[in-house]
Amino acid sequence: MRPVAPKRKTKSPETDRRAKAETRKPTVVASAGKRRPVSSFYVVGLGASAGGLEALRSFFAAVPAKSGAAFVVIQHLAPEHRSQMVELLATHTPAPVHQIEDGMTTQPNHVYVIPPGKCVKIFGGKLMLIGPEKRTPHLPIDQFFRSLAEDRGELAIGIVLSGTGSDGTLGVRALK
User: Which of 76, 92, 142, 162 is the catalytic position?
Assistant: First the structure.
């Protein structure tokens, strides 16, 4: 005679269905030290030299009116130079164009332009103006891109349109 294996208890169809559903749920692992964006739209950092107006005009002429992204223009300008970038860009995009004010909240389908002589960081979806650091070279594009990567994570985009030197190259590496 052949030995007979004991019968297992059969699971109810409902228990079996729940077990299968549990195995399909994705596992979410939060990375330490990384903040999640407070909103779900892309923020695009655009770096340009003082002579980058034509590149910026071409870029915004090609961006759809309702792109769903916020755009932050970081341009190298002397502190004593009065910028007309807001007025100039407003003629090439249907999106509202603003000069950044400290604490301004980013919104989709808006363009934000850095004022002369300032640097900007983003924290919790808000643009924070700071003075340039005296001890280090003035690299406002790198500085913004690094804060953008930390604040927006996968919803951060960095584009260097024009310029001289290396400003922007280190910051772009922080964006993933």
Answer: 76
Domains of the chain, each with CATH number or no CATH:
47-137+156-174 (3.40.50.180)
**Count of CB atoms situated within 10 Å of the CB of 148:** 25
- The angle subtended at Cα 107 by Cα 102 and Cα 108, nearest 5°, is 145
Catalytic residue at 76?
yes
| Residue 49 annotated in active site | yes
Q: What is the pTM of this model?
A: 0.75
Respond yes or no: is residue 142 known to be catalytic. no
The catalytic residue among 49, 92, 151, 162 is 49
**Cβ neighbours of residue 52 under 8 Å, at least 6 residues apart?**
75, 161, 162, 163
Which of 92, 142, 162, 167 is catalytic? The answer is 167
Q: What is the pLDDT of residues 24-54, one digit of tens each?
A: 433 333 333 455 556 799 999 999 987 888 9
- Gyration radius from the chain CA atoms: 24
